[in-house]
Amino acid sequence: MKKLLLICVITFFVTTVCSQSVGIGTTTPNTKAVLDINSTSKGVLFPRMTTAQRDGIINPPDGLHIYNTTERGLNYYDSVYAIWNSYLEDFKTVIFHISNSAASLNFYDSFASKKPSNRYLVIIDPGVTLAGLNPSDTGLIFSTMPNNAIITVRNHGFIGGAGGSGGSGRLTNNSYPVCGALSFFGMHGTHGGHAIATRPGVVISVTNYGFIAGGGGG
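RESULT FIELD:
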C-alpha cells in the first residue's frame, strides 16, 4: 500500500511539473514558455561542434539547434528541405523552387540577383522543363553567378541543351559535382548545347531525380 501511494505521489509530481512552465532565475516563468530563463550576467550555451560533427548527427529533428564552431554561428535543421541552415548571412542557404518551365534559364538574372547569398538550394519541380531553343543553347545557366557561390540543385524535372538533333546521353537518379569552366551533363555534338553551365569559382552539386541531357549536334 505504501509503495502504491509513493508511486501515485511521484506520478502526480511529475505530471504537475511537466504541465507547468519552468523558470531559471525567475519565480514567475511565462506561462506560454516551457522554459523561461532570466539573467543579466549569464547566457545560454548551445552544443558546440564543427560542421563535420554536425553533419554526423543521424536523423536530426526539425528545429534542432547547434553552435557551429566552423562558421562561428548558430545553425538549425530544416527537415522540410533536409538541410542545416545558418542564421549568419554569409552562410545562410537561400531556397528557390523553380516551378515554371523556361528556355535557357539564367539563374542569376531570374533568381539570385533578387536575393543575394553565397549559398543556394535550387529545387526544380516535377514537370518543369529547362531547355535551350536554338542550337548550342544551354538549359540552365550558372556561369554569371558571383565568385564563391555554392549551389545545390535537386532536379525533379528535365534539364537539356538544344541541338540540331536529339541529345545523346543522359544522367538520372544520382548525385554529381559540377565545377570548372562551362561544365555540363550529357554528350553533345558540334552544335549541341550544354544542359548546365557554370564557371570557375562557382561550385554546383546536382542530385537528379529527373532527366538531364546535353543537346545533339546538327
